[in-house]
């Protein structure tokens, strides 16, 4: 089977506009690069403007001219996401996909010692914010002949244990959000799915594991092709499902 047939080849996202949250680094950045190489106009959403601008310049050499939208999801509310959707419509005219790669994780902490505000922050950034953003963009997504919403999960069996706190609770909730939204959009043109990548070297993982545990696991780029696949027409085979991907270092 060709790369294009599997949704990983060059051009499989041609003429599509794809919004990637958490584009400042890790999986978000790797996926943004892969989407640009696959032909998408990538909208980079993140809170670190210098890093967004740097990635913007890189993507401009890989594919169609991207767009950068600085936004701190911790402090953003419904009106901010409504403005984002309005900007996408006025500047780009369409939206064909969202990859929810942004995350918030402070570190491993017993619930008894967890700062309530930090717990609320992890719930908001990892669960409430993706819902609000998707809700605001649904009218625009529904105008596309084939649109995809992809939520990035974690291994729920691994993180649904001691010390993972609000991050674990939110990721379990995100799976529920994916299933509810899929059920509500099953008959339309908006495809909803989730990606569960395997371990990867990232700033997030460095907060939970010792440096020695990071040496033999792959970089986020190992999972970028799976992001492209789910956002492309080939992602239809994973509609309403969790696409679990494991990669070698």
From TrEMBL:
GO terms for cellular component: membrane. One of its GO terms (molecular function) is oxidoreductase activity. This is SDR family NAD(P)-dependent oxidoreductase. The keyword Lipid metabolism does not apply. Belongs to the short-chain dehydrogenases/reductases (SDR) family. Keywords: Oxidoreductase. It holds the Pfam family adh_short. PROSITE patterns: ADH_SHORT.
């Amino acid at each position: 089977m060709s790369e294009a047939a599997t949704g990983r080849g060059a051009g499989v996202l041609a003429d599509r506009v794809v919004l990637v949250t958490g584009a400042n680094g890790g999986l978000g950045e790797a996926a943004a690069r892969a989407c640009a190489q696959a032909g998408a106009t990538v909208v980079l959403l993140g809170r670190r403007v210098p890093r967004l601008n740097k990635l913007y310049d890189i993507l401009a050499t890989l594919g169609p001219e991207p767009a950068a939208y600085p936004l701190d999801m911790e402090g953003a509310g419904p009106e901010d996401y409504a403005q984002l959707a309005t900007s996408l419509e006025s500047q780009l005219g369409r939206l064909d996909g969202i990859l929810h790669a942004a995350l918030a994780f402070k570190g491993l902490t017993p619930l008894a010692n967890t700062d309530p505000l930090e717990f609320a922050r992890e719930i908001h950034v990892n669960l409430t914010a993706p819902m609000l953003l998707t809700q605001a963009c649904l009218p625009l997504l529904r105008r596309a002949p084939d649109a995809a919403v992809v939520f990035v999960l974690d291994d729920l069996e691994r993180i649904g244990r001691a010390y993972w706190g609000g991050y674990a609770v939110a990721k379990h909730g995100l799976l529920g959000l994916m299933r509810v939204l899929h059920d509500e959009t099953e008959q339309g043109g908006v495809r909803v799915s989730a990606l569960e990548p395997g371990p990867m070297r990232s700033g997030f993982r460095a907060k939970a594991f010792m440096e020695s545990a990071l040496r033999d696991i792959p970089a986020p780029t190992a999972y970028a092709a799976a992001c492209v696949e789910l956002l492309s027409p080939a992602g239809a085979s994973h509609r309403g499902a969790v696409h679990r991907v494991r990669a070698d270092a």
